[in-house]
Amino acid sequence: MAHTARSRRTTAALAALSIGILALTACDGDVENDAATPGTHASPSATSTDEGTDKPSSADPGGSGSGKFSDSPSTPPSSPKPGADDDQDGGVGMCETADLTYNVTVASRPVNHALLTASNKGSDPCLLSPNELVITIPGLDGAAGHMGPAGKDWILKPGESAYAGIMFSRADTAGGKSADKVEVALAASESPTTVPVNDGPVTVNDSQVTSFFGTAEDALTY
What we know:
By secondary structure, the chain is of the alpha+beta class. Helix content is 23%, strand content 23%. The longest helix has 35 residues, at 2-36. The chain is globular and about 50 Å long.
């Protein structure tokens, strides 16, 4: 009996030892498997970093990857504001009667007409208003009436001239007053200057005057 009991204890001890060895072997195998596959437990922070690096920058449409925004404006620059040069007269003052010199000469044709030449002898340009010309005959009441088309204001530069035609009398009207000078003003509000009539005197009974023109031929058309 004693021998049998000792055999059983020995067998049980061997069995327990065998189970321990198997358990230890299994644990060593798990550790080796973990060491062989390190990428299966990568940290979340590392994964997010790699994803951020691979994404192209949305701020660089050219694909340079610099991530910098363009310094160029998103809209074209506005047009400059118009200045004084855009005005009709370009900032030039109006011509005044005293600014110009005048010459009146009897014309060969048409009859009973004379040519008025107004010249800018100064050093500055001025804006000439062609339709306000006033012609009067000393000793006669009233100013000459206007004939022909109206003109547009224009800048009379230094050295340039403007022309107007003066009709002193109608061919079918007899009589009148003899005159050897006329009075010229660029506007009714200005004091006139007296101008002699070259090749005069002339007979005046129904005087009329045109607006200023750029040529003598246009001025003597009416």
